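Researcher: We are triaging several targets before committing to wet-lab work. For this one, the compound of interest is magnesium ion. I'm pasting the protein sequence and the ligand SMILES. What I need is the predicted three-dimensional arrangement of the protein with the ligand bound, expressed as structure tokens, so it can go straight into our comparison scripts without reformatting.
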Amino acid sequence: MQETIDRIRKFRDERDWLQFHNPKNLAVSISIEAAELLELFQWKSAEESARHAEENREKVSDEMADVAIYLLELADVLGIDLAQAIDAKLVKNAAKYPVEKSKGRSTKYTDL
Ligand SMILES: [Mg+2]
């Protein structure tokens, strides 16, 4: 993970883009790239979206990478260890969604 963050920093700093990469702009960019990922599946059924992802693997992969790059950079700018944050959030999610109440169900935790 750190090597990837270092490559993202190098890419950004070679272009002198840190001046534009404040937390707000990075959060906006995550959302825009997530929307580009969503656009690949717009109007498709669940079955069509699975097939489309297989047939357009590079496009899907590129948009996923765009989201991840901005997310990793936001975490880096804010000094958040993303792996630690994920671990901590999984613990919270496990408390919100106990297996015995949520297994096989898509119900939101507030309605379990
Ligand atoms: Mg993109």
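Researcher: Any quick observations?
Model: Residues 33, 36, 63, 66 surround magnesium ion (CB under 6 Å).
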